Amino acid sequence: MQVLITGGGGFLGQKLAAALVANPLIAGKPVSGLTLADLVAPSPMNAPFPVECVAADISDASAVNQLFSTTPDVIYHLAAVVSGAAEADFDLGMRVNLGGTMNVLETARQAGNVPIVIFASSVAAHGGEAPEVVTDGVELNPQSSYGTQKVIGEKLLQDYSRKGFIDGRGVRLPTVTIRPGVANAAASSFMSSIFRDTMQGESANCPVSKNFKVWHSAPRTIIGNLLLAAGIPAVDFGYNRCINLPGRTDTIGDMIGAMTSVAGPAAEARISWKSDPAVEAVVGGWRAEFKPKKALAMGFIADKSFEDTVCWFLKDDIVNK
Fold first, then answer.
1. Residues with a known catalytic role
2. What is the pTM of this model?
């Protein structure tokens, strides 16, 4: 199976690629090759199969077309302009999150082999009049440009699948924490920095209160669920190819308490509390409680505790670096 990952240089793309290298199976079949694409070519990696690392702007249709020189059987479309940046620069968000997704889908259609396409959507798809506890089938009503672009991508994925052009699977990711590396322009970036940075001796600001609720999932769990998404029979998705992935609901205060129980009290002392209306305007519209009955029935999993997330971060992204 030939695999293409857009956003292959990002942290999820890199972790997904590493998981495929460690266990070179996808949808129950051996991985025969991997293409990692991002704005800057990802770093080469050793693997038991050929790996091509390509610089490509997905908003450029010709660049996307070149990614299909070796026809992919499975496509992970992870590339995106993150929430805060898409809100601040509407044109950029539309060009990449909508135009780029259209380019990927259309090139996949033209390939003619009906590839599996896993589209990383977002919890930001829900908002507005959505109930406080979101169940399967709740109307999508995003209240941000990023969320709107993701929802349009979902609808396109749905129709391309209905037409038989692709075998699409849309997964709405909870907020992914704890992200390694440095902060990005996502409105939810603080949900990693207040843990990642403070456990490494640096200060971080939390722009919301300790009572703020978050629907979240650990990187390890997200990667496992992304891999699972490729192997589930299409018929199991039914008429709706897009699902809410499982997650956990915790308050920021509870998450900090979990960090303290694992890593000690010093990290919390490095957190400052200064509100940011721009961040609150975006994340305040996201729902924090879900009942993803369909996804759980299909075998997707949720974290058991945030303590696990902290331990995984320390092992995967600190100790081993």
1. 146
2. 0.95
